Amino acid sequence: MTFDTTPALPRGFRCASRNVGLKPEAKDLALFVSDVDCAAAALFTRNQFPGAPVILGRETIKAGVLRAVVVNSKVSNVATGEAGVQFARRMAAAAASEIGTEAGKVLVSSTGVIGVPLPIEKIETGIQGMAAELGTDPMPGAYGIMTTDTHPKALSARVGGATITWIAKGAGMIEPNMATMLVYIFTDAQFDAATLDAMLRRAVEVSFNMLSIDTDTSTSDTCALLANGLAGAVDATAFEATLTAGCIRMAQTIARDGEGAKHLITVTVRGAKTTPEARTIAKSVVNSPLVKTMVAGADPNVGRLLMAIGKCFDVTIDRSKTDAWINGYPVVVGGTRGTFDDAVVRATLSAEVVTIEIALAVGSGEATAFGCDLTEGYIQENAAYYSS
Amino acid sequence: MTFDTTPALPRGFRCASRNVGLKPEAKDLALFVSDVDCAAAALFTRNQFPGAPVILGRETIKAGVLRAVVVNSKVSNVATGEAGVQFARRMAAAAASEIGTEAGKVLVSSTGVIGVPLPIEKIETGIQGMAAELGTDPMPGAYGIMTTDTHPKALSARVGGATITWIAKGAGMIEPNMATMLVYIFTDAQFDAATLDAMLRRAVEVSFNMLSIDTDTSTSDTCALLANGLAGAVDATAFEATLTAGCIRMAQTIARDGEGAKHLITVTVRGAKTTPEARTIAKSVVNSPLVKTMVAGADPNVGRLLMAIGKCFDVTIDRSKTDAWINGYPVVVGGTRGTFDDAVVRATLSAEVVTIEIALAVGSGEATAFGCDLTEGYIQENAAYYSS
Fold first, then answer.
1. The domain containing residue B337 runs over which residues?
2. pTM of the full predicted structure?
3. Contact partners, residue A221, CB within 8 Å, separation at least 6
4. Using alpha carbons only, how large is chain A's radius of gyration in Å?
5. What's the CATH code of the domain at A313?
6. I need a labelling partner for B366 at 20 to 30 A (CA). Which of A29, A158, B154, B207 fits?
């Protein structure tokens, strides 16, 4: 799979972003628009305190038709009650009015501080005239949705005659378990909403749902897929393979840019009794603070690895059959410490990508989880972050 | 309940500790002995890679009789295969020989680095002559089992004519979910092993099993209760109340001394549908990295609190009925941000103990969890900790 490092939006999609006064200077409002109606699917956070845009979004996506996505950063419009949902509706209406469509075809997202009223007037005023600024470069949109990300995240790939473009933000409060942070996927391929929904669910299951920065599940996680059909029909199998590969690639990009992170950690579990058990163990290892600090400290700590596998109480493990590798070196053989040169493995741990593989030999379940190391940078960023 | 801040061992118990060469200078071997056989119960880690001493301990405790406990720090004897279990047996035999009893009446614990062979010869040689050093002061024992603890942990209370004394170590890799780190409870009250086992399980359920430093479950967690009966019979209800209160007090002490911690965080959930649901939510909040860094940063972040409650997907929550307090201030009312003075709550967050209360109003389940803040000190300690 080849991904474009200078991505473009698929034909018929345009975007823009502006500062409308929510942040001091940076872009805080992004608008993504298709020239024609799109078949669409979306997945949202499972958090039981979802933001107002998520409550509205679940209603909006039922029809399976979207024309635009409007996103603000800085204020998440979460824990704002019924007034918050009304503000989200006004935000959809403002975007719809600006581009000439109905509010019911606009997906709204908000990200940022929780429990603060959305400055809706600033958004309603600030969005006016944005339609004239819409362009085919996805980067203004990617910049417009950033919060604590250190860089904008966009990616393109070709499949048949069509293009898929992913635009995302990540950084913290990330263990999606349904969708993820904010990810918008645009394509000019032609599929109906039900097909998009099924493909998106399968792709998210092995990508964003296997990603964890800090085990904290955001109240705003949203992943939407919009297909405007302008490139016509595309082979579904090839499309889904590319869609999935791009979602995995974007999950890795988000993990690598986790708050304070210096390393992408990839944990693959093979030979588990079932796939759910493989997922449980992969997530346990990628989330363990002691494994995360071990990677930050570049120490091949066999004990912490076994601890993080073993603290999954309800999965099948045969200690004497358990093997594990760090960056390809056999650190665990048959449940005990393998023979390896500490200094050599320690040296490989300074690489940007750290790969942990675990073979359980009790079945054929397999899963891969994506995460990052835990550094003082995470603490600094989150202990210094003020909610108001 | 009054606890003695200058604790003593109950009558008939003595202890000692030594440096036998596992650590450069600090004490690394502790021995706790009763003059007569004790009825005993013990709970161990649920981690699926238990240490050799835990494997042996489960066998030892079956008879319900203990005469001594021997503990080394620095090397945990985990992931050491069958040889590790043989070394644990030799450690029990060495202690038994030193004090004149059978190896089957000696509980062995080891704590420290995983995956390294236990230097059993140093222990066998170093323990010789320790019987002559046994004294009634518990502090040498408490010092002898420390790893990254910043202070020794011991506590006494009187119940009827008897004494209960708790000696513990904690600090990291702590989310017990069965027993906890290393906790030894000695009493001269008289109970049979089955009664002790039942009382210990109930006490641990609301104390050490509700404690979490970092969600990581150690491979060595052990909590043992030894009763030598020298004070005769004691009212069981009064005894269990004191036992439970002391376990809660010790859990708080361990949480407060979590690696890098500056605050004890107590999370109480009331009005949950069931007690297990209350436990799930209390643990989710006390374990959330974003809540932990919020306390470290002294910020009353309502959003993070709601996020941490809401990420419990499978519990019953009625958003409009959910209230929460930080240090007594109503930060959440009916699922949205309450009215409170940010600066005032922020000032109270600098106190050593931070209390979070959550009322769900959907049932009568109640639970309290104990944890600590997440600071740069945790990262420094654990990224710098080398496994060999």
1. 264-383
2. 0.80
3. A44, A45, A47, A54, A176, A178, A179, A180, A181, A182
4. 21
5. 3.10.20.340
6. B154
pLDDT, residue B216, reads 66
Residue A229 confidence (pLDDT) above 70: yes
| Burial (0-12, 13-18, 19+ Cβ within 10 Å), A154 | buried
Map tokens 């581009």 to a residue: A99
**Cα–Cα distance, A198 to A176 (Å, whole number):** 18
For residue B301, what are the contacts with CB-CB under 8 A and spacing of at least 6?
A114, A385, A387, B290, B291, B294
Q: Could you give the CA distance from residue A26 to residue A20 in angstroms, rounded to a whole number? A: 9
Same domain, A251 and A276: no
| Triad B34, B39, B40: Cα angle to 5° | 90
Of the candidates A30, A90, A35, the residue with the CA atom closest to the CA atom of residue A67: A35
Number of H helices, E strands in chain A: 11, 14
Classify residue B2: in a domain, yes or no.
Answer: no
Could you tell me which residues are beta bridge partners of residue A40?
A226
Whole-number percent of chain B with pLDDT over 70: 93
Nearest to B49 among A216, A310, A383 (CB): A310
Question: Are B127 and B98 spatial neighbours (Cβ–Cβ below 8 Å)?
Answer: yes
Locus of tokens 């941000």? B337
Side-chain half-sphere exposure of A260, counting CA atoms within 13 A:
22
Return d(Cα A217, Cα A219) in angstroms, integer: 7
Q: Note the helical H segments in chain B.
A: 52-60, 81-99, 120-126, 139-144, 193-205, 236-256, 275-287, 289-296, 302-310, 342-348, 376-383
A190 found inside a domain = yes
Q: Which helix (H) or strand (E) holds A140?
A: helix A139-144
Cβ pair A157, A146 in contact under 8 A: no
Domain final residue, candidates A215, A238, A256: A256
Does the pLDDT value for residue A274 go beyond 90?
yes
CA dihedral A204, A205, A211, A212 (to 10 degrees): 120
Give which of A271, A279, A121, A124 is closest to A212, Cα–Cα. A279
| Closest Cα in chain B, distance from residue A295 (Å) | 8
**Tens-place pLDDT, residues B162-181:** 999 998 887 655 554 433 47
DSSP lists the bridge partners of residue A326 as: A329, A356
Residue A341: CB atoms within 10 Å:
10
Residue A128, amino acid? Q
Does any domain span residue A204?
Answer: yes
CB contact under 8 A, B306 and A385: no
Q: B73: distance to nearest CA of chain A, Å?
A: 15
Which residues make beta-bridge pairs with A365?
Answer: A272
The count of structural domains within chain A is 2
Q: How many CB atoms lie within 10 A of CB A100?
A: 9
Q: Which of B180, B217, B222, B280 is catalytic?
A: B180
What is the DSSP secondary structure assignment for residue A346, as one 8-state letter?
A: H
Nearest residue in A to B84, CA atom: A336
Tokens found for residue B157:
């209370």
Is A1 inside a domain boundary?
no
User: Measured between CB atoms, which of B217, B376, B383 is closest to A311?
Assistant: B217
